Amino acid sequence: MLLCVSASAEITCWEELLDALDAVSPLVDDVRPGLAFADMHGSPGSPADWIQRTREAIAPFVLDARLGIGSNKTCARAAAHAGDGTICPAGGERSFLAPLPLALLEIDPKVMERLRLLGVERMGDLARLPHGPFVRRFGPEAARWHACACGRDPAPFVPRAHSVAIEATMFGEGRADDEAQVIFALRVLLSRICSDLERCGKRAGSLQLDVELEDAGTQTFDVLLASPTIRERDMLDVVRAKLEGVCFEAPIVGLRVRASRLEEGGEKIALFAGGDFDPQAIAVAISRLEAMLGEPVRQARTRSAHVLEERFVYDRYVPPKREPLHEERLLSACDTLIPQLRLMAVSEIDVRVRNGEPAAVALDAKPPRAVIECSGPWRVEIGWFSDAYVVRDEYDVLLDDGELCRIYRQGAQWYLRGAYD
Amino acid sequence: MAMPSQPPSRHTAFATLKAGLDTAALAAPRPRIEAKIPSSVPALDRALGGGFPNGSLVTLEGPAGRWSIAASLVASVTCRSAAAIVDDGGLYPPDLARSGARLERVLIVPAQSPLAIARAADVLVRSKACRLVLVPAPELRAAVWMRLAGLAHRTGILLVAVPPSDAPSARIAPLAAAAALRLYCTRGRLETVGKRGVWCTIGGYDVCAEIRKNRTAAPEQRVVARAAVC
Predict the structure, then answer these.
(1) Other CB atoms closer than 10 Å to residue B4's CB: what's the count?
(2) Residues of chain A contacting B129 with CB distance shorter than 8 Å
(3) For residues A20 and A165, what is the distance between their CA atoms, to the nearest angstrom?
């Protein structure tokens, strides 16, 4: 039997509540914030006792949680939805679910609307539909909906991993007045952290550093490691980069380092792994750059779009995993040069038009230069369905001084977008 | 009379396994740290004696074609390693991807001011995380370029600086003095496909690279490479 705990999705102390549920059952499935299941198989007492124990355990954290018990996730959740403390009887799942609304199955709203038009509004209506034709009409996902409506939920129970707190502290061992002392203490703490991580088979994705000052003040630094690591030196490099330029108003009397965002340890071995690509070294460089520049290091991703500016997007850089070296990839680079468009800040330009195409272009308030070759126009139309309707004609023009530019006309005005290099 | 087959001894089994492992290791492509980074442009690589030298400061000067060569270098490096580009806002990633660069291995560091560009280059070269660091070359003191060139030499990183196309020679003199290799790039013949107008597309153009300085070989060689749009 499973016990469902359903609360508001905006709950702030969800992790603490899950920790409290460990007292009820050692196996807790954290589906999402606000929804969890506890496996009660073998627990002493009756279902009513389980609900009572759970209510006592979570009372300090949340008051409006609803509890329900059923033989699977759908039934337990439906029981919690039907009323706090409801128990779905074993063997009577189908009849228990029949009067409940379809919304419990979290079906796509468009499909819900189609089902409503077909007169299917309750779980019982869905369970009565023939399985084969229903799945053929609504796709593979419909098989799961049908099984759930019949009281059989194929979703597996996935117990959450227990959180491990790894931290190291140094208090009451004098005070640090200069940087070297602080770095030495940090090195000791990080060494302990790395030993603990190694023992647990984990890697840390970030560190939290608390600095206690002699004037009773505390400063906290969140140090994000671009790639989870267990290497003490990498951690120290990043922490040093983070502390660069920081000024403390009083001597330091205590330090605490806590490892968080823990991941399972292990990395693909480098025996046959490719190249000299080292994600850890990149992670350290990224942390230093971000600490220095105050801006994230980026990674570009291309995508299909009509407008030049929308054909790529920048994300925060995440080092990819090591991978084996493939010969075909080594030879994948082109053996010819590809002209590179260099984007410029969009600026208005004067363009003389002859026979419908650019004949002379004036850039940077200089005298107009004749167009030797002209390629285009390529019409771009976007947003025709909204108020942001844009029509532009783009041209590549070769000027008489050898410059090859990308210009475009939008409305009556001409703009310079970039130059090929 | 046939003897019953003996089970392989422990030593035999181990030797067989080891031989298989050695064969697999030999067959697998091994990472190599070459002294030069090829640019994927055969004519240019021949003129440079195999490619751009690791551990040096290289400048790509001239009015056109500099970033095309730089992109081919990025493509060559990202096959095996990572590259970093200090971006002053002009980078157009789709063209970089078309040149064969693996974008997931390209760190793009946004930096606008000369000081920020220099500091970013310093961190990147010092970290040895990327084999190629590509920076737009702002106006900096000679000491800064000397320091970056020394760092590149010590760490074995190829640092490529691309000054603006309209930079006067006096402005890039400090950079030119520190560089181990200077290429001056110009655009040659442009080829169009189709009639002028809406059906016309630019098919490609020639990039002429002149080696103005080369500490490891004779300079004054002129190379023509083809840049194709399609």
Answers:
(1) 5
(2) 278, 281-282, 284-285
(3) 16
- Which of 3.50.50.60, 3.40.50.300, 3.40.50.720, 3.90.190.10 would CATH assign to domain B36-183? 3.40.50.300
Q: At B45, is the pLDDT very low, low, confident or very high (cuts 50, 70, 90)?
A: confident
What is the complex's ipTM, to 2 decimals? 0.78
Quote the minimal CA–CA distance from A263 to chain B in Å: 22
Q: Which residue in A331, A340, A354, A409 has the most chain B C-beta atoms within 10 A of its own C-beta, making it the best mutation to test that interface?
A: A340
Q: What percent of chain A is modeled with pLDDT above 70?
A: 92
Among B84, B99, B111, select the one facing A293 at the smallest CB separation: B111
Question: How close does chain B come to A295, measured CA to CA in Å?
Answer: 7
- DSSP letters, A73-118, are HHHHHHHHHH-TTEEPPTT-HHHHHTTSBGGGG---HHHHHHHHHT
What is the rounded CA–CA span in Å between residue A379 and residue A376? 9
Of A179 and B113, more confident: B113
Residues A421, B68: C-beta atoms closer than 8 Å = yes
Find, in chain B, the residue whose alpha carbon is nearest to that of A401.
B63
Give how far A304 is from chain B: nearest CA, Å.
10
CA distance linking residue A287 with residue A231, whole number of Å = 15
Nearest to B227 among A301, A320, A336 (CB): A336
A167 bridge partner residues: A258
* CB nearest A272 (choices: B28, B198, B229): B28
Q: Which pLDDT does position B29 carry in this prediction? A: 46
Q: Which helix (H) or strand (E) holds A391?
A: strand A390-399
Q: Say if residues A314 and A306 touch (Cβ distance below 8 Å).
A: no
| B71·A340 Cβ contact <8 A | yes
Average pLDDT over residues A97-101: 90
**Region A250-278 average pLDDT:** 72
Mean pLDDT of B23-38: 59
3-state secondary structure B39-63: CCCHHHHHHCCCCEECCCEEEEECC
> How many beta-carbon contacts under 8 Å exist across A and B?
215
Query: In chain B, what residues touch A302 (CB-CB under 8 Å)?
Result: 93-94, 97, 103
Half-sphere exposure of A92 (CA within 13 A, CB side): 8
pLDDT digits (tens, 9 = 90+) for A5-59: 888 877 778 888 888 888 888 888 888 888 899 998 888 888 889 988 888 888 8
CA-CA-CA-CA torsion sign (A342, A346, A349, A351): positive
Average pLDDT over residues A368-377: 86
Give me the residue spans of the domains in chain B: 36-183
Neighbours of A101 (CB within 10 A): 12
Output the furthest CA–CA distance in chain B (Å, rounded). 93
Contact B72 A334 (CB under 8 A): yes
Determine the 3-state secondary structure of B147 from DSSP.
Answer: helix
User: CA angle at residue A31 from A28 to A33, to 5 degrees?
Assistant: 105
- The pairing of beta strand A252-264 with beta strand B83-87: unpaired
Range with the lowest mean pLDDT among A203-207, A314-318, B11-15?
A: B11-15
Residue A105 distance to chain B (closest CA, Å): 38
Instruction: For residue A230, give how far its alpha carbon lies from the nearest alpha carbon of chain B (Å).
Output: 18
Contacts of A329 in chain B (CB under 8 A): 79
CB contact under 8 A, A375 and B202: yes
CA distance B73 to B94: 16
Q: What is the pLDDT of residue B41?
A: 81
Residue type, A115: L
Q: What is the pTM of this model?
A: 0.65
